[in-house]
What does this fold into?
Amino acid sequence: MIRNLQYGKILLFITLVISAICMGSIAYSYVYRAICAIRYPQPLDYGEGPILNQLRYILQGKNFYKDINSPPYIIGNYPPVFHLFSILLVPVFGISFATGRTIAFLAVIVTAYIIYKIVLHFTGNKLVSFLSALFYLAIDYVYVWGIYMRIDTLSILFNMLGVYWVIRYEDDYRRLRWCVLFFLLALYTRQSMIAGTAGAYLYLLTKDRKTAGKLIGYTALYGALVFLLFNVITKGQFYLHIVKYNNNIFTLRQLWFFMSKELFTYTVFTIASLVTSIIWLWDKKKRIISLYFISAFLVQLTVGKVGSMLNYLIEPVGIMGIIAGILVGEALKRKNQIALVGISLLILFQLANYYYGPNTLSWGWKPSPPPTALDDYVEETKGLILAENLGILPAHNRDIYFDPFIFTQLYYQGMWDQSKIVEEIREKKFDLIMLEFSLYYDHWTDSDRWTKEMKQAMYENYYLIDTQGHIRVYKPIR
It folds into this structure.
């Protein structure tokens, strides 16, 4: 009687129910916040402003991959695929953050569905596949980042779709070759999104070198042609903007700051995924997942670059959910009660680890009314505005004149001369300056976004007139 008792399966079922409830609550909160964010008229993240500004440039037929030595001082950090998708929603939302935030949110939902299909392909278990998809919606990095008008969730979608396409059609070359399109879309959404391409093509090389060679060749050829086209149109600026001007300083301190959050929040999943990926290198069927995870894990180490954020950690953690789903599905097939108990305990430990670990849920935006006074300042100011919260300008159909983070980094690297912008501040060329710090307490040090010369020029020639939330508004001293 005791031998026939399915105690392992019962414990695992209870564990999965608990997991579903926990993940479901976070996923629900994410969806709610994403919908609220779509309707929010002001920027939620520093990087949203440049993208909305670039969207305006495209609609006006202007080139934002421009010479950085003449105003406006802006950079096109990424290729334009995300912008082009966002344009499709301009007739619905107008030129606003809602366009890109909707694309980012839909990309998260579709990616979760692709994860469901991948796990289902390997396990045939719909419940486990659903939980793997739900896990993606509950990742704290997605919770924070997946509501922004940022390119990352769309690039991950194309990467996941490309990998799934290879899994699904690896024996049907006529359909398989469409993966080239998906991988190129990923690369031309975010140029560092290479994990899917690397994992899939390395897998195909171990299976059929001739087929892999063709796909690699087509990807390189079409990718080079698109790159050449953009470079010719922009007179060589496309390369400079997405490659040279993106090489910010790399620090081990920043790398550890973000990687430690992943390692201590997803400890069980990280260890299990690394060990499993090594084992699966000898599994002809699951090798593609192994190579994809290893590639993504290595790519995320570029989070040590100054200016990088949580977005670099989304993809590898999402793949961890795939690996965990496949492992649970296989354990259920084998019906080994001791193994099921072991997996249950590991999942429970991971849930506790997530709850007590350094998850970043608290970093997420909480729906609240926007500080409309900032809108009034922008609307009432006819001259130039220097804003640290860049998005407030394109949100009111105003051009961004200066991107402080990018150009401060370029100055530190010796690629740009700050003397012109410092002189313009001293000459009080800006009718309004909006900062996220107080000049009275910090005007003599360098920072990521402002040099001490810029701060000193603002301190000597501008005075505080208002504070709205964390934004301080300054006007020139007359």
